[in-house]
Design goal:
The chain is of the alpha+beta class. It has 2 domains: 133 residues, Jelly Rolls; 101 residues, Orthogonal Bundle (Arc Repressor Mutant, subunit A). The chain has 9 helices and 10 strands. The strands form 2 sheets. The chain has a 5-stranded antiparallel sheet, with helices on one face. β4 and β5 form a beta hairpin. α1 packs antiparallel against α2 and α4 packs across α5. InterPro entries: AraC-bd, Homeodomain-like_sf, HTH_AraC, HTH_AraC-typ_CS, RmlC-like_jellyroll, RmlC_Cupin_sf, Tscrpt_reg_AraC-type_HTH.
């Protein structure tokens, strides 16, 4: 799910918060089919989590995709955009940096355990100015402890900065160009295949083949979560057969599509 797939998205309003009412602040949103189409920053950490639907956070350097039971950690001051699949039920946590001195300095996709999920659900129902010395404050403390223990998962796609590679990446979202290899892209851009291959590895840490496969699999998560047939998703992502798609999906995520969304 990339920005190229949202040609008619709507702006989603952000809360006017000069400061957080508490070190941990929760928001609940139901997004019919929306995306935050402008880049913005927060002076606090944001945890973007969807109990239904798929969220994507884009920064200048990467895409971070979070289907259910995953969440995206966005550090304070990091410029980002948020996109969502249709009918997304979003729970956002805004966290004062002093409450999470252990927090990573870069965006991450984190696994959300059943306990952490229920803690987020319960905390999101509290009033903004909850009693920090009472049960709500203890709930917030446990939530932060569980968040600290949440492991990172590989649902990130690094984005190159070179203008030629950006053109290649954008072209790979087009069904008519998806099957082009680096040799064909080199002809289009007037640069050698070897140069493009070297640039891809230098700027993303991945070979072109591995980068393209990860892009396809991340793009598959939203339609799969919405219940589309696995065969249809596989073909739409450029795979010639269902078995090839499932094998690639298992290698990337450690589970078949069915197992992945039953977790």
């Amino acid at each position: 799910m990339s920005s190229n797939r949202h040609p008619a998205t709507l702006h989603r309003s952000l809360p006017e918060l000069p400061s957080l009412p508490r070190p941990l602040y929760g928001r609940v949103e139901s997004l019919t089919n929306r995306a935050l189409t402008f880049r913005h920053t927060h002076p606090w950490v944001q945890l973007s989590y969807a109990i239904a639907g798929v969220l994507e956070v884009q920064t200048a350097g990467a895409r971070f995709v979070a289907p259910p039971q995953r969440a995206v950690w966005v550090p304070a001051g990091v410029e980002h955009q948020v996109f969502s699949s249709p009918r997304t039920e979003m729970r956002s946590l805004y966290i004062d940096g002093s409450a999470v001195p252990w927090g990573p300095a870069e965006c991450r996709v984190l696994a959300v355990s059943p306990l952490l999920r229920e803690l987020i659900r319960g905390f999101s129902a509290l009033p903004a100015e909850y009693d920090e010395q009472g049960a709500p404050g203890r709930l917030a403390a446990v939530l932060l402890d569980e968040l600290r223990a949440a492991p990172e998962v590989a649902l990130m796609l690094p984005l190159p900065q070179d203008a030629r590679l950006r053109e290649v990446c954008q072209g790979l979202e087009d069904a008519t160009l998806r099957q082009l290899g680096l040799a064909e892209w080199g002809e289009r851009l007037g640069v050698s295949e070897k140069t493009l291959s070297r640039l891809f590895l230098r700027e993303t840490g991945l070979s072109f083949r591995v980068w393209r496969q990860r892009q396809r699999l991340l793009d598959a998560l939203s339609p799969l979560e919405q219940g589309e047939r696995v065969t249809d998703v596989a073909l739409a992502c450029g795979y010639d057969s269902l078995s090839a798609f499932i094998a690639a999906f298992r290698r990337q995520f450690g589970a078949t599509p069915g197992e992945f969304f039953r977790e």
